[in-house]
Design brief:
Layout (H helix, E strand, L loop, with lengths): L7 H9 L3 E4 L4 H4 L7 E8 L2 H13 L4 E4 L5 E3 L3 E9 L4 E3 L5 E5 L4 H10 L24 E2 L2 E2 L4 E8 L4 E6 L18 E9 L12 H6 L11 H14 L22 E3 H15 L1 H5 L3 E3 L4 E4 L1 H7 L13 E3 L7 E3 L5 H19 L8 E3 L5
Parallel strand pairs: 2-5, 3-5, 4-18
Antiparallel strand pairs: 1-2, 6-7, 7-12, 8-9, 10-11, 10-12, 13-15, 14-15, 16-17
This protein binds flavin-adenine dinucleotide.
Keywords: Cell cycle, Cell division, Cell shape, Cell wall biogenesis/degradation, Cytoplasm, FAD, Flavoprotein, NADP, Oxidoreductase, Peptidoglycan synthesis
Main location: cytoplasm
Enzyme class: oxidoreductase
């Protein structure tokens, strides 16, 4: 593949930016938690906030396609040579004020390190987001969430490079249209998060517990109860490990992009029809247990994992010899068992999506960002 725009001159100018290193060897198989994907034209590692901004502005001005990469934990990337530059964020500063609860972290900081440090300092608000892989800068991108909390609960503003103008400024969280697994940064290339600011609670207690399984484990029967942050973090990590949702190099159940499909939000009539199908096939007891949560005017949020299971895809599907399988601990995670290609993973994703659609008439939508490949 040739790309005349990535000239020696551009490479030289990139290499001259402070805190930047370049290489042409790294592959997305090394950069992603699925361990899948081919080689970018160039990998540019940025060790400071100013380096990220300068690199992105230089590449944008030259019209060179780029992909900002944090921990690669929400990416499905095609095999082969990719006509883009991977810009890796490694600006990992962290400032926190235990008295006020104000936290500022560089986009390249490992998210779980930030959570651990805030918990250690007795700050409450992000303990339920313990164990989510990836970078701090990516957390607003899809408004990460888990165990009843999401980053939108505590995010005050982000230091954003607006790619259209090259302007760098602190942008209020409200401008990002944060919603369930969404912001106007996701899929849009609008900007690069250079740092985030959080307002946490300095009283040493967690945010109100809203997730049944977690609250029960912590003996919090009162809805909205609070517990010491360390206790909540430990319990969340324990629950996540049980589902293969904490990265572990030797554990192929964690070679995933986390939850592969978002929980579908459907009209009440569609939810009723799904429930009726389950009732006819599996009886009242199962149908009455179907997870369904009010999601605003006339709509209901269903559980993608539950639908996948009830459509006949068990944990570990399609079986031991398959290179890409559902996790053996969670039907919502699609995993690489070590020898899968991106095509294997995409074929499995299609099979699951089509199976759920055929059974229930609900089309599951993938959560990760797809690069050079598509489910359709
Ligand atoms: C085992 C496992 C468990 C997971 N559990 C959860 C969970 O509980 N909840 C949840 O919400 N997610 C979960 N995820 C998904 C993923 O970890 C999150 O979406 C995470 O925030 C992605 O961060 P990253 O740095 O790896 O992003 P990447 O995968 O590197 O990038 C994802 C997208 O964000 C963009 N991006 C990254 N950084 C920036 C930036 N600084 N500015 C602008 N755009 C940026 C990229 O260009 C890309 O489009 C899980 C994933 C795995 C593998």
């Amino acid at each position: 593949m040739t790309d005349s725009s990535l000239t020696p001159d551009i490479r030289t100018r990139l290499a001259q930016i402070a805190d930047v290193t370049l290489d042409e060897r790294t592959t997305f198989a090394e950069l992603t938690t699925l361990h899948l994907g081919g080689r970018p034209r160039l990998t540019v590692r940025c060790g400071s906030t100013s380096a990220v901004a300068e690199v992105v502005m230089l590449l944008d001005a030259a019209g060179i396609p780029l992909l900002v990469v944090g921990g690669g934990s929400n990416l499905v990337v095609a095999e082969g040579d990719l006509d883009l530059v991977a810009v890796i964020l490694e600006n990992d500063t962290l400032e926190l004020d235990p008295a006020s609860g104000l936290v500022r972290a560089g986009a390249g900081a490992v998210w779980d390190d930030v959570v651990a440090a805030t918990v250690e300092a007795g700050l409450g608000g992000i303990e339920c987001l313990s164990g989510i892989p990836g970078s701090t800068g990516a957390t607003p991108v899809q408004n990460v969430g888990a165990y009843g909390a999401e980053i939108a609960d505590v995010l005050t503003r982000v230091l954003l490079l607006e790619r259209a103008t090259g302007e760098v400024s602190w942008v209020p969280a409200a401008d990002l249209e944060l919603a369930y697994r969404y912001s106007n940064l996701k899929f849009t290339g609008r900007g690069v998060v250079l740092a985030i600011e959080l307002q946490l609670n300095p009283d040493g207690l967690s945010a109100p517990l809203r997730f049944g399984e977690l609250a029960r484990r912590l003996g919090a029967t009162d809805s909205g109860g609070r517990r010491p942050v360390t206790q909540v973090r430990d319990t969340v990590l324990d629950l996540r490990r049980g589902k293969g949702m904490v990265l572990a190099e030797g554990d192929h159940d964690t070679w995933s992009a986390g939850s592969f499909f978002t929980n579908p939000v459907v009209d009440v009539a569609v939810a009723d029809s799904v429930q009726a199908t389950v009732r006819a096939a599996r009886g009242d007891e199962d149908a009455d247990r179907m997870p369904r949560f009010p999601a605003g005017e006339g709509t209901v949020k269903l559980s993608a994992a539950w639908l996948i299971d009830r459509a006949g895809f068990a944990k570990g599907h399609p079986g031991e010899d398959a290179p890409a399988r559902l996790s053996t601990r969670h039907t919502l995670a699609l995993t690489n068992r070590g020898s899968a290609s991106t095509s294997d993973l995409v074929a499995l994703a299609r099979e699951v999506r089509d199976g759920v659609r055929g059974r229930f008439g609900v089309t599951l939508v993938p959560e990760p960002v797809w690069i050079g490949v598509s489910i359709d």
